[in-house]
Amino acid sequence: MLDGSAWRYPTSAGAERESIRRHHLRHTRGFLYFLGHDPAVPAAVRRELGRWGLPADEFADTGHLPHQLYVREARRMLGERILTEHDLLAPKSDASTVALGSYHIDIREVQRGWRWVYEHPRPQAMVFTEGYLSVPVSAYSIPYETLLPRREHAGNLLAAVCVSASHVAFASLRMEPQYQMIGQAAGTAAALAVRTDARAHGVSRDDLRAALTASGAILAPTR
Fold this sequence. Notes:
Blueprint: H1 14-37, H2 43-50, H3 85-89, E1 97-101, E2 105-107, E3 111-118, E4 123-130, E5 133-135, E6 140-143, H4 167-173, H5 176-196, H6 205-214
Antiparallel strand pairs: 1-6, 2-5, 3-4
């Protein structure tokens, strides 16, 4: 399997996804073995790796490696509103806010390579990490419209994970506490839709925010 094969995971069916998962599993096992046994690895590194093993008390039914592939980001919805980096770096109050985000923009490395770095007294070949980004943000609004598909795409759907956000904004939005808050908002909106005989797009934003606030949700940053 070629490098970059993980890009196919979001659009693949079950069989190809399983093949990609196994590819990552083989790579991880092989890499650990290489670090602990190959003569090309410095002896000190091999000795240190030799002191460790897989956790005996974890994932006992799957060879002591996690039973699930960690998928950090996959498909995202193109919704009524797209949350972007601008919304995170210059947050504003929003009348349709249903949750607040606060985790920093956190994008992992795309790839590692090397380049010459001009250090005194002569250039040095150094590992170069491409694509890494870590930017702090203030508390920002997550509008209800980011949970809704565009009307012409679907009429009665709420998305609490594959929300409508750009790649950069999703790098902050994707954290579990924010998923929990978005899930609460989606569930409350669905209940209101049933109660008022409305479709998801037609749920009253005021009623939704009132219900969320009554249940303890914080919808405005505290200063």
